[in-house]
């Protein structure tokens, strides 16, 4: 099996940020030296995947690439990300948020553009917990009079 990650990540050739969404956490490195590489490592399996193959849907891949498109930096950076927790959709949004934060770390002048697009706002919506004596977070058990 060939390893997709055949390069070394150092502070000189990469920019790091963390993105979170629902239960998903993504650690994202933007690679300056490898603008053609888009690799994601799933911590659950430890395997590395091509980003487009991992997220499966084209809409999710385009969502991840949105910060590059908005700032006009497409083709300048590659992505190496490790993801843990949540589902594919939450992980994709976590990667997108991590990419946006990493771009701001790389060049603070991009902040107003990304902020206006709403990409620097952490989506804080989480799953509501199940309550005792109930079926779920809001659904109750059926009540019978007799």
Walk me through the topology.
Layout: E1 14-21, E2 24-31, E3 38-42, E4 48-50, H1 51-55, H2 58-71, E5 78-84, H3 88-106, H4 111-116
Parallel strand pairs: 3-5
Antiparallel strand pairs: 1-2, 2-5, 3-4
Helix pairs in contact: 2-3
Characterize the structure shown.
The chain has helices at residues 51-55, 58-71, 88-106, 111-116; strands spanning 14-21, 24-31, 38-42, 48-50, 78-84. With 146 residues, the protein is of the alpha+beta class. It has a single domain (14-116), classed as Ribosomal Protein S5, domain 2 (2-Layer Sandwich). Strand 3 (38-42) and strand 4 form a beta hairpin. Helix 2 (58-71) packs parallel to helix 3 (88-106). The longest helix is centred in the middle third of the chain and has 19 residues, at 88-106. The mean pLDDT is 92.
Q: Main traits of this protein?
A:
Ribosomal Protein S5, domain 2, 5-stranded mixed β-sheet, 5 strands
Number of helical segments? 4
* Helix and strand pattern: EEEEHHEHH
Cα radius of gyration in angstroms: 18 Å
Average of pLDDT = 92
**Biggest sheet features:** 5 strands, mixed
What is the general shape? elongated
CATH fold field value = Ribosomal Protein S5, domain 2
The level-1 CATH class: Alpha Beta
Kindly report the spatial arrangement of strands forming the biggest sheet.
1-2-5-3-4
Estimate percent helicity: 25-40%
How many E strands?
5
> How many domains, as an integer?
1
Q: Indicate the CATH architecture.
A: 2-Layer Sandwich
- Roughly what fraction of the amino acids lie in strands? 15-25%
How far do the termini sit from each other? 64 Å
**Low-pLDDT residue spans:** none
* Class by SSE composition: alpha+beta
